[in-house]
């Protein structure tokens, strides 16, 4: 894996300003070791080995760097030549680095860079950053940079002109380097676990207090049950103590999945006290506790049975005590032992099939069906323990009421998918006819069942349309698992199942009735009108419901993680349109100063992080519309600010990207739009520098900052740490 793909790996430049003499010596030792690993017996590296080691995508740069590293022109690089070149790139002054860059761009060695050489370089830069643009756009980029740098208009860029052009971009010359493969960078020191700081306590106090209460309750229940049976020996005390804790956990684990109750609680003051947003993680945590307590409970009983079987007065053998009803253990016909064995086997099966490798490897149905074994487990628990039914009575009743209500609501009337759009990055955009009584808030999610895809499977998806859109519900579904891939492929092969015989009439009628701005992403060959039966269960609330109660909201989406914010951004757009007034005489427009009662927002920063260029395509039209509406709002500074990041693109400090990034900046200023997405917002290369991002957010002083994230758990952990550092509240979208 290259450094580009691994955020934990620094580039060569990251060592430049921070290397001590000792660290520098360690780095030289590391590079020497790595060189010897890949070099031949003659201790030299040829071009092919250099390409492999440097992990460059474009052979142009590998060949140019190799030529410049090979100072004696022998066709191979020695260790000394490698160290000299790398030392220049790490410790060299800006002028030395600039000379190196100029030599890279001066392909024919004439001492100047002509337009064709620059075009060749920019094309290679695009390939290195995984950016695909038409030749016409490449020509425009080349001319924009060439005309800006060629001050004397003599048809060539000299060294002095390149230096002057680079100086227009602050900090670039000082930090110029080459992103290199991990073999050139010593392994990073292991990260220390985060200390329990005041900021950590402030952001997690409700979570920590609930965990403390959970642990305290378990200790109390264990102690009471164990003391009650202290006359029967240590093994029985442990078994009874664990059994009493399992009574609590076996019923409480259902409470954590009461989605309708949790959605209702989010609208009350309890949402400020209880960690409702962590219900899935807490459900998983309780599951682990149940596994541990069950194993300890089982082992304690096995020890007790072994001791009983060894006693002279015992009429039963060990296997009879463990597997049969003959000893009469239990409150119903001696069923405690066999039901206990069955419970343990079911629990272990459910635990094994709940692992992420099962759920996320295209075998979700295995997880789904084995998780339904909670029904026989509760029946067995009632037969196994005399007191479990008392613990289950209230939560079990609520749980089954939720299930009955959900089943009744979802099956009351079948809905239909009326339109399908197949978007880039294997995203399926479904438009479902909205039920009359289906009321939801921005960021909510629902469960979807499409019988023609899988009759019994229900999958959660965030609603990407705004609540103000009355006629249809939008879902954007990325093809990542077995069910989502089947969905995408069923539409890709042909217009499936039930095609509408009059698609144009239906489309025209729907568009006129909706009276909404045209922000749908469509292409004729991937746009289908259908009438496919489906069922939905929901809506259910998420942490993003708090956004409109925030003062300064920072929305961060990674990849398909934009979908919760799609609904929110559209809702903001609708609300602003509602506040807009137009004079019928002069057509002058203005915005009402009064906002909605439930909307306290002063500023919204929206950040979308994508791996590649195509990942932006499916949602650009909505963002374009948002930018257009934003331009019409007359107030101090933008209310909604977009920030786009493309992680496959190399940054401005990289010699393999500086020319392209400069050209993109120049053309964006000229055309007032970004060449990659077509938005007014310039797409930034690489990953965000979260320190700088949050410093800027804090400096704006628009009110209390709350960060909302939907994306990978790894990035969530990074963001959570930065939020603790800056004192921002952090909320993560979970299913």
From TrEMBL:
This is NADPH oxidase 5. InterPro entries: EF-hand-dom_pair, EF_Hand_1_Ca_BS, EF_hand_dom, FAD-bd_8, FAD-bd_FR_type, Fe3_Rdtase_TM_dom, Fe_red_NAD-bd_6, FNR_nucleotide-bd. The keyword DNA repair does not apply. Residues 57-92, 93-128, 137-172 form the EF-hand domain. GO terms for molecular function: calcium ion binding; oxidoreductase activity. It comes from the Eukaryota. Residues 410-546 form the FAD-binding FR-type domain. GO terms for cellular component: membrane. It is found in: Membrane. Keywords: Calcium, FAD, Flavoprotein, Membrane, Metal-binding, NADP, Oxidoreductase, Transmembrane, Transmembrane helix. It comes from Canis lupus familiaris (Dog). Pfam families: EF-hand_6, EF-hand_7, FAD_binding_8, Ferric_reduct, NAD_binding_6. It is a multi-pass membrane protein. The chain crosses the membrane at residues 208-226, 285-309, 329-354, 366-384, 553-574. The lineage of its organism: Eukaryota, Metazoa, Chordata, Craniata, Vertebrata. Its main location: membrane.
